Amino acid sequence: MRWLQVELTLSGELAEPVAELLSRYATGGIAISKAGDVSEEPGPEAAVSVRAFLPVDPHLPTQRRKVEEGALAPKPDSSSPFP
After folding, report:
1. What separation in angstroms does the CA of 30 have from each of 2, 20, 41, 75, 76?
2. Which residue among 6, 24, 37, 59 is least packed, with the fewest CB closer than 10 Å?
3. What are 31's strand-pairing partners?
4. Among 23, 24, 40, 68, CA closest to 32
5. pLDDT in tens, 13-38
6. What's the pTM?
7. CA 79 to CA 19: how far, in whole Å?
């Protein structure tokens, strides 16, 4: 089977939410690792790499669209009384 690797480099504080989003569609798994200088002290601002693996099959266009929609979805407004 062939796999499509999606890789994003972002701040450490965003790694878990992004990995959660990708894990919904990446049946091949998720990997999170430090990006850049490995001697850098870890922290919320340190760069990390989040990788997801999607199977290259007839469902790939749909899975890709869902990932894009999830990434672009508006964040809930915590001041709003509506969920």
Report:
1. 16, 9, 23, 23, 25
2. 37
3. 51
4. 23
5. 888 898 998 888 888 889 998 876 65
6. 0.69
7. 26
Q: Starting at the edge strand that comes first in sequence, how are the strands of the sheet with 3-11 ordered?
A: 3-11, 47-55, 30-34
d(CA 36, CA 44): 14
CA 27 to chain centre: 13
Label residue 76 exposed, middle or buried (CB < 10 Å: 0-12, 13-18, 19+).
exposed
Q: Where are the alpha helices (DSSP H) in 1-83?
A: 12-23, 60-72
For residue 44, give Cα distances in angstroms to 3, 10, 63, 77: 30, 10, 29, 23
